[in-house]
């Protein structure tokens, strides 16, 4: 729904008295607690159940070994109290202490899972210290199984809980944060576009309060209502919001942001700042306070060093193992292709790789042998923009080829390119070399080796516009890490199974 702005500039009323409430008991309940509190209770129950289940599995597998645990045969009641009650409660305490229930980390990103792993390390160290201090004779194998098993089960339970939360946010539009964007209209619309790209994030802009450019904004069509000259706190309550997002230059006005933070104290409304620094992930951004002035320091992308060498090693080893293991699959696909259309099994095309070097990519052939000759007659049917050419029902693709594309099996021979060092398992997709020079932002993709899968593929593949695909590739280049690669590989499995955007 589009909104036509027709607002009146009203004088801003004097701000209400500011300051933290004198008593902690008088603080207002945060509006976000409508979803956060029930979700936290559900996580507490799931974590407790996972720890109990891990203890039960450990005892079942090593029943004889656990007999020495605090003289379990002589005092079974105390043994089961420790195993099924105190240890799971200890897990909850350690998880809470490591911030695993902090609403800032729940529902999105990897911080929640990192904190679970930190909690597991803390729990292991605590159990080891207690066993040493009390001189308790423990079965190392059974304790290790219980602790590692609890960590794995807690991670799996939280992954499933997050999946349910995302479904609720996408389908029901609930369990999210209703945001009021504050700033100039272009800045607010940029933030609106960014936060609405992922409904799973649960950030729902409901209104814009512009701080400048009133005349230019009048009469413009916007996705959400626009207001000006209003008391921000009153506006948030009027539209049912629970979060204020200060966008771009509005966060740099001296004293304004601080006074807004004072005004929101005790109101139960969150305050977030969206600086004019987009598409840069948290690990590269650090706040360094100097004499009371918080400076936002942006590190360079990590495209070298030990982590980069480990990535290269993992690529080569995984490609070698994959090629050997997939020999039967390759043979079956080769036979199916030859039966569908006489001609070569593989299709090799020049692509642009790392630092602009050209190489020939390996793929299973999915089109008839005369596909290149028929391309000219289909150019006007192109359904994408930029450097891509895609048609959902391309007549040049034979039936088996259509299946190979939908299942991404046609990409498997690119393991050969990975083994030779021309490609990586994860990275921007290699683009055809006959499209000329890569200018502007697009050329930055060439700082890393192209990949079999990438952020573009797990975010929509062929359903994305060219500009969106480039943005995702540049985000990957600027924010690369080994953990990010593993996350993309994991997401690739779900995308391939669902066949999203593959044609």
TrEMBL record:
<feature type="domain" description="Bacterial sugar transferase">
    <location>
        <begin position="311"/>
        <end position="497"/>
    </location>
</feature>
<protein>
    <submittedName>
        <fullName>Sugar transferase</fullName>
        <ecNumber>2.7.8.-</ecNumber>
    </submittedName>
</protein>
<dbReference type="InterPro" id="IPR003362">
    <property type="entry name" value="Bact_transf"/>
</dbReference>
<keyword id="KW-0812">Transmembrane</keyword>
<keyword id="KW-0472">Membrane</keyword>
<feature type="transmembrane region" description="Helical">
    <location>
        <begin position="140"/>
        <end position="161"/>
    </location>
</feature>
<dbReference type="Pfam" id="PF02397">
    <property type="entry name" value="Bac_transf"/>
</dbReference>
<feature type="transmembrane region" description="Helical">
    <location>
        <begin position="317"/>
        <end position="339"/>
    </location>
</feature>
<keyword id="KW-0808">Transferase</keyword>
<dbReference type="InterPro" id="IPR017475">
    <property type="entry name" value="EPS_sugar_tfrase"/>
</dbReference>
<comment type="similarity">
    <text>Belongs to the bacterial sugar transferase family.</text>
</comment>
<feature type="transmembrane region" description="Helical">
    <location>
        <begin position="39"/>
        <end position="57"/>
    </location>
</feature>
<feature type="transmembrane region" description="Helical">
    <location>
        <begin position="116"/>
        <end position="134"/>
    </location>
</feature>
<feature type="transmembrane region" description="Helical">
    <location>
        <begin position="77"/>
        <end position="96"/>
    </location>
</feature>
<dbReference type="GO" id="GO:0016740">
    <property type="term" value="F:transferase activity"/>
</dbReference>
<feature type="region of interest" description="Disordered">
    <location>
        <begin position="1"/>
        <end position="24"/>
    </location>
</feature>
<keyword id="KW-1133">Transmembrane helix</keyword>
<dbReference type="Pfam" id="PF13727">
    <property type="entry name" value="CoA_binding_3"/>
</dbReference>
């Amino acid at each position: 729904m589009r909104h036509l702005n027709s607002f009146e500039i009203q004088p801003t009323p004097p701000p209400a008295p500011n300051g933290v409430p004198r008593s902690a008991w008088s603080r207002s309940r945060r509006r976000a607690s409508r979803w956060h509190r029930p979700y936290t209770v559900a996580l507490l129950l799931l974590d407790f159940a996972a720890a109990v289940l891990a203890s039960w599995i450990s005892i079942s597998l090593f029943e004889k070994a656990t007999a020495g645990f605090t003289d379990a045969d002589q005092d079974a009641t105390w043994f089961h109290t420790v195993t099924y009650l105190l240890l799971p409660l200890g897990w909850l305490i350690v998880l809470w202490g490591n911030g695993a229930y902090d609403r800032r980390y729940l529902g999105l990103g990897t911080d929640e899972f990192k904190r679970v792993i930190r909690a597991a390390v803390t729990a292991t160290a605590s159990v080891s210290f207690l066993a040493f201090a009390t001189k308790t004779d423990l079965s190392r194998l059974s304790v290790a199984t219980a602790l590692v098993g609890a960590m794995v089960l807690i991670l799996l339970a939280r992954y499933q809980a997050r999946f349910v939360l995302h479904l609720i946010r996408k389908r029901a539009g609930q369990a999210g944060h209703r945001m009021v964007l504050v700033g100039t209209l272009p800045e607010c619309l940029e933030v609106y576009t960014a936060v609405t790209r992922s409904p799973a994030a649960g950030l729902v802009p409901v209104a814009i309060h512009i701080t400048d450019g009133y005349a230019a904004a009048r009469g413009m069509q916007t996705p959400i209502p626009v207001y000006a000259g209003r008391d921000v706190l009153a506006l948030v309550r009027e539209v049912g919001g629970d979060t204020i997002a200060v966008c771009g230059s509005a966060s740099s006005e001296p004293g304004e942001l601080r006074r807004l933070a004072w005004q929101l104290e005790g109101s139960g409304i969150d305050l977030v700042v969206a600086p004019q620094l987009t598409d840069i992930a948290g690990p590269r951004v650090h706040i360094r306070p100097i004499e009371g002035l918080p400076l936002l320091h942006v590190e360079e992308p990590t495209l070298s060093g030990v982590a980069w060498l480990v990535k290269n090693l993992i690529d080569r080893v995984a490609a070698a193992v994959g090629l050997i293991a997939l020999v039967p699959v390759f043979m079956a696909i080769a036979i199916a292709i030859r039966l569908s259309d006489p001609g070569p099994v593989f299709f090799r095309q020049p692509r642009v790789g790392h630092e602009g070097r050209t190489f020939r990519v390996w793929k299973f052939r999915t089109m008839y042998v005369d596909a290149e000759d028929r391309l000219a007659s289909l150019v006007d049917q192109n359904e994408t923009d930029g450097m891509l050419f895609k048609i959902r029902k391309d007549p040049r693709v034979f039936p088996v080829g259509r299946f190979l594309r939908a299942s991404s099996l046609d990409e498997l021979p690119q393991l050969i390119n990975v083994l030779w060092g021309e490609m990586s398992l994860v990275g921007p997709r290699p683009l055809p070399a006959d499209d000329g020079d890569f200018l502007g932002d697009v050329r930055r993709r060439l700082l890393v080796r192209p990949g079999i899968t990438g952020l573009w593929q797990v975010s929509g593949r062929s359903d994305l516009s060219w500009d969106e695909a480039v943005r995702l590739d540049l985000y990957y280049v600027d924010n690369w890490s080994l953990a990010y690669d593993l996350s993309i590989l994991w997401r690739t499995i779900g995308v391939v199974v669902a066949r999203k955007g593959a044609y």
